[in-house]
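Note to self: user wants both folds in one dump. Writing first protein now.
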Amino acid sequence: MKTFGINLIGYIGANLGLGHTAREFARALLAQGIPFCIHDIDPGQARGDFDNTFGHLAVADPEKLPYEINLFIAGANSLGHWVFDMASKSSNRDRLNVAFLWWELPDMPDHLIEAARIFDVLIAGSEFIQATLMNSIPGIPVLLARHPLTIPNGIAPDREKFGMPRDSFCFCAGFEPFSDPERKNPFAAIQAFQTAFPEDPDTRLIIKINNAPEAGTENDQLARLYAMAARDTRIILLKKNLPYADLLSFYASCDAFVSLHR
């Protein structure tokens, strides 16, 4: 019989939204006094090893995870890749396998549905995702859980720190070069900005690029973004990876957030 506690599995240390979500779950478990350890997955493209707050709780071998509950934090599109493989390695009949999944569409493809059946319980962070999972994967309990969230103290605007004009109206948008560019859609954000404000010198669009690769190693989509931005001096590209508190300070420095996420 395994010891009560949770094996938290995911991109725990990565500079990704899913990494931040996993760290928020770790903070919630810590606040509730629930025993847990982590098994950190490296997402590749030099995006791992960004935040090692919980590194002292890491267990490297999935077969040696000590607790009776496996909690996976993942996008559903990972079900056919590392999640299925990791669940197979870390599962046995003494463990409860749970997945907190993110998904953006009302339907799921068959190969993800079949992969999800390895879990005993699914958890959704919104009613939309819960309905999708319940409709797509009948027979497995799907729970609704609020996303844990902590805001560090002292978050305040600081335009000078981020190279933003003091008196301009600043829009901001985000882009992850290793995600789907058509889904994140930074190009349409630029087009919308230029359509709305074709010649207004007192407006700016700041695009926060997460995990920007080194110069000379850009992919085609990132090169396209750089070229579009270079043609308009009002567009600022912020390419430095920021700790969570600094990222929130950047958002607090902006006047409006633009998302044409598909």
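First done. Writing the second protein, which came from a different request thread.
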Amino acid sequence: MDNSRFKFRAFDKVNNEMCEWYELVNNPTLLRDCLSASDSIRVDIMQFTGLKDKHGKEIYEGDIVERNASNGRGNVRGVIIFLEGEFRIEWHGKGQWNGILHIHAKDCEITGNIHSNPELLK
């Protein structure tokens, strides 16, 4: 199995910045906070889905993606979640629904993430 699929990033809520896993390993304080249940409110860990968007950018949990609606009514926007054993897109807009990520990934574009760009989901 390809170990590069198992990648993580974390959002440091104290410093308001996204960190790649290698940055966490090289920062003992932040890594300790990531792994400590008592400090879990400081850091939100997100897993790489193993998929890339239409521009080749890696898609992680918490990413906000956009694609053309299949009904021809413009673009729809959603957030990547892990639900019932698979990565999905929780589409936002008129009536929310879930889509299976691996079906839609190649048509999606990452436009932000839930920490840095929460306004995109309003």
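Dump finished. Worth passing along: The longest strand covers residues 43-52.
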